[in-house]
Amino acid sequence: MSSLARPLYNTFVKRNFTFLGVIFASAFAFEIAFDITTDRIWDNINKGRQWKDIRSRYVQSGDGDEE
Amino acid sequence: MASLTSTSRTLLRALPRTSLSSLPVRALSTSSSKCGPGAADTSSFDSPFRGFGGSKTAKIPDFSHYKSNKSQTSNQMFQYFMVGTMGALTAAGAKNTVQDFLVNMSASADVLAMAKVEVDLSAIPEGKNVIIKWRGKPVFIRHRTPDEIKEAESVKVESLRDPQKDEDRVKKPEWLVMIGVCTHLGCVPIGEAGDFGGWFCPCHGSHYDISGRIRKGPAPLNLEIPEYDFPEETSLVIG
């Protein structure tokens, strides 16, 4: 544990701007992951009730001139 | 001076040990006799609790049970990890809050859908007016003939009330697009009427020419030009 902590500390925490950059980068990554996860949960709960699920029943030709 | 301060320090350190009654005597005696090698037997790193060492009421607790047995770096790393995670969550939350407010303030989809109007220009013959509704207002579209374009361009701009060149008012000279609301009090002018061959407002008698510029009457400004574009040769998008 200690052998792992020292290089981690030196790489990410020692200089403040690196630490801040790591924080913002992880915030960005976290946001994407969070959005994807919650969207997936939502789609899973509302399966078969959303327009993208029933679209094929009403739109046959795909890229027709109406909708 | 240095010996005096060290003496007083020794004295202070000795204070708890001495009984209060004998203090003045000893203080006097130490100041004279103990400033020599006798002061060296108490080091400056002594525990401040040493004087109470024998006392039963002031036991110093043993903290070793609570002490982390990991190294300092891994403890530090854990703390910084927690701080950083907290900061990242806060940053994501703050960003989302701001974004939600901005999204809430921007136009919604139904407004955006109403905001644009597409017109098929091939249905409008030369020399004809078309009035369409856009954002609740009438919009005049005139397919101008070459004669009308020449007429609009030949007007001396300096003599006008609201001087504006015809080329500043149109994107394509044959298509004149403007909002059909009189700049005086907001009536809708009548097309192909008035003294200048353009529009005439029946409410108070403002005359507009074939470029929609005010020429006569009470209106102060030319007819307003909306934002429009020609995405294709024969279609016009207003908005």
Automatic annotation (TrEMBL), chain A:
It comes from Amorphotheca resinae ATCC 22711. One of its GO terms (biological process) is mitochondrial electron transport, ubiquinol to cytochrome c. Keywords: Electron transport, Membrane, Mitochondrion, Mitochondrion inner membrane, Respiratory chain, Transmembrane, Transmembrane helix, Transport. Transmembrane segments: none annotated. One of its GO terms (cellular component) is mitochondrial inner membrane. It is a single-pass membrane protein. Component of the ubiquinol-cytochrome c oxidoreductase (cytochrome b-c1 complex, complex III, CIII), a multisubunit enzyme composed of 3 respiratory subunits cytochrome b, cytochrome c1 and Rieske protein, 2 core protein subunits, and additional low-molecular weight protein subunits. Component of the ubiquinol-cytochrome c oxidoreductase, a multisubunit transmembrane complex that is part of the mitochondrial electron transport chain which drives oxidative phosphorylation. The complex plays an important role in the uptake of multiple carbon sources present in different host niches. Belongs to the UQCR10/QCR9 family. It is found in: Mitochondrion inner membrane. It comes from the Eukaryota. InterPro entries: QCR9, QCR9_sf. This is Complex III subunit 9. SUPFAM superfamilies: Subunit X (non-heme 7 kDa protein) of cytochrome bc1 complex (Ubiquinol-cytochrome c reductase) (SSF81514).
UniProtKB/TrEMBL annotation, chain B:
CDD domains: Rieske_cytochrome_bc1 (cd03470). GO terms for cellular component: mitochondrial inner membrane. It is a single-pass membrane protein. Binds 1 [2Fe-2S] cluster per subunit. Its cofactor is [2Fe-2S] cluster. The keyword DNA damage does not apply. Its main location: mitochondrion. Residues 146-237 form the Rieske domain. It holds the Pfam family Rieske. It is found in: Mitochondrion inner membrane. GO terms for molecular function: 2 iron, 2 sulfur cluster binding; metal ion binding; quinol-cytochrome-c reductase activity. InterPro entries: bc1_Rieske_TM_sf, Rieske_2Fe-2S, Rieske_2Fe-2S_sf, Rieske_Fe-S_prot, Rieske_Fe-S_prot_C, Rieske_TM, Ubiquinol_cyt_c_Rdtase_Fe-S-su. It catalyses: a quinol + 2 Fe(III)-[cytochrome c](out) = a quinone + 2 Fe(II)-[cytochrome c](out) + 2 H(+)(out). Its EC number is 7.1.1.8. Keywords: 2Fe-2S, Disulfide bond, Electron transport, Iron, Iron-sulfur, Membrane, Metal-binding, Mitochondrion, Mitochondrion inner membrane, Respiratory chain, Transit peptide, Translocase, Transmembrane, Transmembrane helix, Transport. It is an enzyme of class 7 (translocase). PROSITE patterns: RIESKE. Belongs to the Rieske iron-sulfur protein family. The Rieske protein is a high potential 2Fe-2S protein. NCBIfam families: Rieske_proteo. This is Cytochrome b-c1 complex subunit Rieske, mitochondrial. It comes from Amorphotheca resinae ATCC 22711.
